[in-house]
């Protein structure tokens, strides 16, 4: 009674890992393209507007990555 084949689980884990790596790389590129350090501005300077903008851009990038992997 193998309900879920092992190959499907492995494929899902591989695609999840690839998606996370692509997201991290795209976030690092986005951080380099901005004139300031995003993490410092958000965490130390408490720039809420920048945090909302980065969150929205992250969701957009994740949607693109998910649709490309799917």
TrEMBL record:
Entry's transmembrane regions: 6-29, 50-69
Subcellular location: Cell membrane
KW Methyltransferase (keyword) present: no
Record keywords: Cell membrane, Membrane, Transmembrane, Transmembrane helix
Entry-linked InterPro entries: DUF350
Membrane topology of the entry: Multi-pass membrane protein
One Gene Ontology cellular component: plasma membrane
The keyword Acyltransferase belongs to this UniProt entry's keyword annotation: no
Sequence similarity: Belongs to the UPF0719 family.
Protein name stated in the entry: DUF350 domain-containing protein
């Amino acid at each position: 009674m193998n309900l879920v084949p092992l190959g499907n689980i492995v494929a899902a884990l591989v695609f999840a890992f690839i998606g996370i790596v692509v997201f991290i790389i795209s976030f690092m590129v986005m951080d380099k393209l901005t004139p300031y350090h995003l993490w410092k501005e958000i965490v130390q300077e408490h720039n809420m507007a920048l945090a909302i903008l980065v969150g929205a851009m992250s969701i957009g990038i994740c949607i693109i990555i998910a649709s490309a992997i799917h």
